[in-house]
Amino acid sequence: MGVDATKPSVLDSTGAASRRGRAPARRELSQGALGWLFVAPIVVVIVVLVGYPLLLSLQMSVQDVAVYPGEQTRLVGLGNYLSLLRADSTLSAAIHTFGYWLIAVSVELGIGMAAALALWHPFRGRGIVLALLVLPWALPPVVSGLLWTRILDPTSGWLNGLLYQLGLINHYQIWFSNPAATIALVALVHAWGLIPLITLILLGGLQGIPSELYEAAHIDGASSAKAFRFITVPLLRGSIVAALAIGTVVAFGIFDVVYVLVGTDRDARSVMMQIYLTTFGNLDFGHGAALAVMLSLVSILVSVAYIGGLRRRAR
Prior knowledge:
Elements: H1 10-61, E1 63-64, E2 74-75, H2 79-86, H3 88-119, H4 126-138, H5 141-152, H6 158-165, H7 179-207, H8 211-219, H9 224-235, H10 237-252, H11 256-262, H12 271-281, H13 285-314
Antiparallel strand pairs: 1-2
Helix pairs in contact: 1-13, 2-13, 3-7, 3-10, 3-12, 4-7, 5-11, 7-10, 7-11, 10-13, 12-13
């Protein structure tokens, strides 16, 4: 019995199906390759600008780096780290940095949340308010520090003048007269520059919450406070974690504002300032690199803790 040439054979249909199956796979592969092609320049830049300096810092952190002619670089292993952990200057800088972080992040999150809620719903002049809100964040930290130096000047500062005219003080105050006040004021100045960014992050999260949820809660008789607690906060948790992580990393790296406001005062030195003084003041690159690595590890661990807390809450 002959084979009908007009009908496709089983092999032909199987081959066609196989070719049809391979076509989407090739298309996905080409799209993936195109994506990597676009990402490759950024990866190269990150490796060159971040990866190489990081590896160099790790290498220097376990060495006694030679600086002067005739000296030789020696491998000391964890000796730099152990000596830093025993040094009083490291403990003092860590306590100051912890104070900056605690005050700054609390102020940034509190005021940022209030500002985001105030700007959530459109109103006349909202664009102007948003533009003005961004100004402190747009200013370089050194410029912000110089501006606040003029405000907090003990002899001719605007703050002293205003409080004196209002009768709230009898004489001009020296605002950086004690360590606690210095830490608090520096943290507030630092927070002032970062509040706009935190506000925008939280505002973006608020705008992503469906309005139908609040309408349903209102129909069910929920108050504004309950709606904020059971709708806003849970759905805004991702934005809050992002704001906390950014605020923490920036607070751990505080340097410019401290240097401009109080210089290298021992009662206000942050870890970043201690790194600067150790590395470039004492020309001790090994200990400076080790301290920088320790600060980076702490920043990463805190950020990971934030993300881990978010995931546990989401379950």
